[in-house]
């Protein structure tokens, strides 16, 4: 009863009706939970400070948004890598165009839209609908009412299961509307709860309500970062938990289930705060590594003004072609080609196609800093145990 209750429906299945936030009795901020809250808050502060020391923090943020988009989408079953997305952004109509990459790019657009809108619109149900509309535009699930809350029952369970045999059934539409209204009130009036506790409660509640026919996981993960930015805990959107949730996917599902079956908000919050501390620490180390890499590479290119200019662009677009370098630098094709060859010999760039024409090059050391975050999760995370509304 602390988190809600299962209610038998006329059609023979049980749906979960969540209780309003904050929980009653209140979250017990004591012992290990208090220690984890302090650790996570400190780590988040260090991350915010580390972001500010970068020469151009916005370039760092744009790469982090892309990497989060990749990992969050992989949790939902897409197969695109960070490099796939960067190549797609270069040529959306090219031979490597894929629906998976398109979905990830939509995620990036949805995140950027949400962050831009926060300056004029509070974090609200309206903003969540706008974000969902951009997330689902043109990709898989685009037929499932993008930007609109569901008006039919959905469920979570193994592919082919029914409402009766589903692993979890969210509230029916009429109860969903009430639950969403309560969630919005909590977002606007959280009381005296610490912001990180509010983030953890809001994310879990959103996933329980499951208000869209598709895309709930991705929108729910975006909600965490948007809350931190709206509350000015982070000046820039640098915290993304998908790498942690992907590595601990089964525990993530188990902790959400324990909220619904046992009212165990504290167990979920301990898990959530561990993730915040771990991911914040890793992102802080990445920011410092980027600063060191930038200085080392600039020293290598000290005698090449064009090389320095191209290097700056690589922190935003770390995959490029000779033609792209030519256009960016405003030089001849031959000059751009010679510069890229020089940077390839230095180990700054690596050719990825193996072709003689239409070659692509990647800023190898820079991309490696981001890609390493997802490497260990490939074997650590089991395949998704359930499908949303029967979705494969």
TrEMBL record:
Active site residues per record: 210
Signal peptide from the UniProt entry: none
Pfam families documented for this protein: Fic (PF02661), Fic_N (PF13784)
Start and end residues of each Fido domain: 123-274
Molecular function via GO: ATP binding
Residues holding ATP: 76, 210, 214-221, 252-253
Record keywords, A-Z: ATP-binding, Nucleotide-binding
Protein name: Fic family protein
Organism: Stigmatella aurantiaca (strain DW4/3-1)
């Amino acid at each position: 009863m602390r988190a809600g209750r299962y209610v038998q429906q006329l059609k023979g299945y049980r749906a979960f009706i969540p209780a309003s936030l904050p929980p009653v009795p209140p979250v017990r901020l004591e012992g290990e939970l208090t220690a984890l809250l302090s650790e996570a808050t400190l780590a988040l502060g260090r991350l915010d400070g580390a972001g500010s020391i970068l020469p151009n923090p916005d370039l760092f943020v744009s790469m982090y948004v892309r990497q989060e988009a990749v990992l969050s989408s992989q949790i939902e079953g897409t197969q695109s890598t960070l490099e796939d997305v960067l190549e797609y952004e270069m040529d959306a109509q090219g031979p490597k165009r894929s629906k998976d990459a398109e979905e990830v790019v939509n995620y990036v657009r949805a995140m950027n839209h949400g962050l831009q809108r926060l300056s004029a619109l509070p974090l609200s149900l309206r903003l969540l609908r706008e974000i969902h509309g951009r997330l689902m535009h043109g990709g898989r699930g685009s037929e499932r009412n993008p930007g609109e809350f569901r008006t039919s029952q959905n469920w979570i369970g193994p592919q082919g299961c029914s409402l009766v045999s589903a692993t979890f059934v969210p509230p029916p539409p009429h109860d969903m509307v009430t639950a969403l209204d309560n969630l919005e009130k909590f977002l606007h009036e959280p009381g005296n709860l610490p912001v990180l506790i509010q983030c953890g409660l809001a994310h879990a509640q959103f996933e329980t309500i499951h208000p869209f026919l598709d895309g709930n996981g991705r929108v729910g993960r975006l909600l965490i970062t948007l809350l931190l930015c709206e509350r000015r805990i982070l000046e820039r959107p640098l915290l993304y938990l998908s790498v942690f949730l992907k590595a601990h996917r089964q525990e993530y599902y188990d902790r959400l289930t324990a909220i619904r079956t046992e009212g165990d908000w504290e167990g979920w919050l301990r898990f959530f705060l561990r993730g915040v501390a771990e991911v914040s620490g890793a992102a802080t180390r990445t920011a410092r590594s980027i600063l060191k890499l930038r200085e080392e590479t600039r020293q290598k290119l000290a005698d090449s003004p064009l090389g320095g200019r191209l290097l700056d662009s690589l922190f935003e677009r770390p995959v490029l072609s000779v033609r792209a370098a030519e256009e960016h630098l405003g030089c001849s094709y031959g000059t751009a080609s010679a510069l890229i060859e020089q940077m390839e010999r230095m180990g700054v760039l690596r050719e990825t196609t193996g072709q003689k024409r239409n070659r692509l090059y990647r800023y190898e050391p820079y991309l490696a800093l981001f890609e390493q975050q997802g490497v260990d999760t490939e074997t650590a995370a089991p395949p998704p145990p359930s499908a949303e509304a029967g979705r494969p």
